[in-house]
Design a protein that fits this description.
Keywords: NAD. InterPro entries: NAD(P)-bd_dom, NAD(P)-bd_dom_sf, Rhodanese-like_dom. It comes from Tetraparma gracilis. Belongs to the NAD(P)-dependent epimerase/dehydratase family. By secondary structure, the protein is an alpha/beta fold. The protein has 11 helices and 15 strands. The strands form 5 sheets. The chain has a 7-stranded parallel β-sheet with strand order 4-3-2-5-6-7-13, with helices on both faces. Strands 1-12 form a two-stranded antiparallel sheet. It has a two-stranded parallel sheet with strand order 8-11. It has 2 domains: 211 residues, NAD(P)-binding Rossmann-like Domain (Rossmann fold); 92 residues, UDP-galactose 4-epimerase, domain 1, CATH 3.90.25.10. The chain is 39% helix and 18% strand. α6 links the parallel β6 and β7. Bound molecules: nicotinamide-adenine-dinucleotide. The site of nicotinamide-adenine-dinucleotide has 31 residues, from α1, β3, α5 and β6.
């Protein structure tokens, strides 16, 4: 189907001033890259992360060490708080003690399939945690509240390009439902208290320090080591894989523009089939994948592709890194750290073979 041309309009306050940004989930994959970008341009950063064991917490400790090294020569300060976004007394203290001006809320229980196995954990972290942060953000009158949503809210949409004005009231996993609920709560806080909120629907993010439970890093790891991979479905399913620096660029642009209440897709804007994806990993690892083909999994969506028109028009966002180049860089990083220990990275061991898609 042809992409429709639309005009976008929104009420926005540009905000280029120095910031003290609370980055929840700042020890994680996207959070640590975002904190790095904010520190490098002179903002102060407060990381709130509970270093949970969804995947090996030593990876998150390593991410924080990198941030601490960076902060040594930086203009802004870095504070690391080890605690949960569901602990309202702690969250209140963090806002109070650090004079937070902006929230970049990336902490979550991520992953589609584990949310089907443990829905209460997802509701508590993603919905209760987000409500506590919104509540503190309005009490402390922050200038902007930016938070991670997900492409998974589009569920089984049949559109060629998912666009933000599509009906997303049919989530097909508890994870997707929790992310849609965050968008609804953000709307409520914007409506009741004029808290500026921006939700970002990320499309399958990959890159250096990526999540070991997600297909890109998992496949690079297993194919490099000659270990078998499990391919769910016939390989024609396609994802909009987005390189992490592009996502971070979109997050930072959102922090610099306080919209009343908006939601944006952040993706590359084109899909890659699973077959091509595996082929690209084979090309850069120089190894042939040893595949076992299994049926599609519940909760998975066959196709994701972002319409990035709105993010282009309003945020000036545009994904710069091609899929092939992103995989090349990720494999180079992987080789530099001489591989990852497979099998122990994700709680539950066997979960390692999940082809995670968000
Ligand atoms: P990640 O798991 O690497 O990062 C999430 C971080 O949040 C982790 O460091 C974790 O320890 C922390 N966290 C979890 N529960 C917490 C709690 N109760 N209190 C404090 N910290 C807590 O995942 P990521 O890929 O960097 O994802 C960041 C955000 O982007 C998440 O909200 C995720 O749902 C969303 N997202 C990611 C993708 C993707 O492809 N990676 C796609 C769509 C949406």
């Amino acid at each position: 189907r042809k992409k429709q041309r639309k005009a976008f309009a929104a009420v926005v306050e540009p905000d280029a001033g120095k910031k003290t940004v609370l980055v929840t989930g700042g020890a994680g994959f996207i959070g640590s890259h975002t904190a790095q970008a904010l520190l490098s341009r002179g903002d102060s950063v407060v990381v709130l992360d509970n270093f949970n064991d969804y995947y090996d917490p030593s990876i998150k400790r390593g991410n924080v060490e990198l941030l601490e090294q960076m902060a040594e020569g930086a203009e802004g300060s870095l504070v690391i708080v080890d605690g949960s976004i569901t602990d309202s007394a702690l969250v209140g203290k963090v806002f109070q003690e650090n004079s937070i001006t902006h929230v970049c809320h990336l902490a979550a229980r991520a992953g589609v399939r584990p949310s089907i196995e443990d829905p209460l954990l997802y509701v508590e972290t993603n919905i209760t945690g987000t409500t506590i942060l919104l509540e503190m953000a309005r009490l402390h009158k922050v200038r902007n509240f930016v938070y991670a949503s997900s492409s998974s809210v589009y569920g089984g949409s049949k559109s060629a390009f998912f666009s933000e004005d599509e009906d997303v009231s049919n989530p097909v996993s508890q994870y997707a439902a929790s992310k849609k609920t965050c968008e609804l709560l953000a709307h409520t806080y914007s409506h009741l208290y004029n808290l500026p909120t921006t939700g970002l629907r990320f499309f399958t993010v990959f890159g250096e320090r990526g999540r070991p439970d997600m297909a890109p890093l998992m496949f690079i790891n297993k194919i490099s080591k000659g270990e078998g991979i499990r391919q769910f479905g016939d390989g024609s399913s396609s994802r909009d894989y987005t390189y992490v620096s592009d996502i971070v660029d979109g997050v930072v642009r959102s922090l610099d523009r306080a919209y009343k209440n908006e939601v944006f897709n952040l993706g590359k804007g084109s899909g890659t089939s699973l077959i091509d994806f595996i082929g690209t990993v084979e090309k850069y690892t120089g190894k042939k994948a040893n595949k076992t083909i299994l049926p599609d999994q519940p909760g998975d969506v066959p196709y994701t592709c972002a319409s990035t028109d709105k993010a282009k028009a309003l945020l000036g966002y545009s994904a710069e890194v091609a899929f092939d180049e992103g995989i090349r860089r990720t494999v180079a990083w992987y080789n530099e750290k001489e591989g990852l220990e497979s099998g122990e990275l994700v709680r539950g061991g066997g979960g390692m073979a999940r082809k995670e898609k968000e």
